[in-house]
Amino acid sequence: MAARFDLLVIGGSAGSLSVVMKIIPLLKPSLNLATVIVFHRKQSDDSALIEVLAGRTDCRVKEADDKDDLLPAHIYVAPADYHVLIEKNKTITLDFSEKINYSRPSIDLSFDSAAEVYGPRLACLLLSGANADGVDGLLSAKRQGAFIMVQNPSTAEVPYMPQQAVEKVSCDLLIDPDNLKEFLAAILE
User: Residue ranges of the CheB-type methylesterase domain (predicted)?
Assistant: First the structure.
């Protein structure tokens, strides 16, 4: 069964990797869904991340490169220290401009640029983290018709980021990482 969205953008910081590790196996190639993952991470964290994620899904997992086409059944991981922007021609642009919310990559920029292109065919998921990056991007995405999901702050290792989102954004779904049936149902047609 195909997804009802064309693009899923997942944003997270401290404490989010363990949740992504539970979500990745659910992202089957048959969903026909492109996925972008934006983590706050150091360049020294890069070595094994792609291989670890790739080992948990049949989708192709790769670090995002400038001008990559966003293809179904592909998972693109934002490289450390680069913003990931989604362009109108459904490609990725890597950007080294200033940090936003002390972060590069900025989850806000990825959510916002994806929403401009995909509108209601976009699903956004904000996970655990220690700052408010992603909240403004969710607001922008919501205004453009995107489906907004946030990790339930009570389940987050670092609840600040999802708590800010819950307080400021009208979320369509709160995600419990130990019960992802609702997540999967939400992205299916």
Answer: 1-189
The yes-or-no verdict on residue 173 having pLDDT over 70 is yes
68 an active-site residue? no
Question: Which structural domain range is residue 85 located in?
Answer: 7-130+137-187
Question: For this structure, is 13 an active site residue?
Answer: yes
Residue 1 covered by a domain: no
Rounded CA separation 99/40 (Å): 11
**Amino acid 44: pLDDT:** 60
pLDDT band at 48 (very low <50, low <70, confident <90, very high): confident
- Look up the CATH number of the domain holding residue 166: 3.40.50.180
Cα separations in angstroms, 143 against 96, 115, 136, 148? 27, 9, 11, 10
Asked if the structure places residue 166 within a domain, the reply is yes
Spot the catalytic one: 68, 108, 133, 136.
133
Which of 13, 16, 103, 106 is labelled catalytic?
13
Question: Active site residue: 6, 16, 40, 74, which one?
Answer: 40
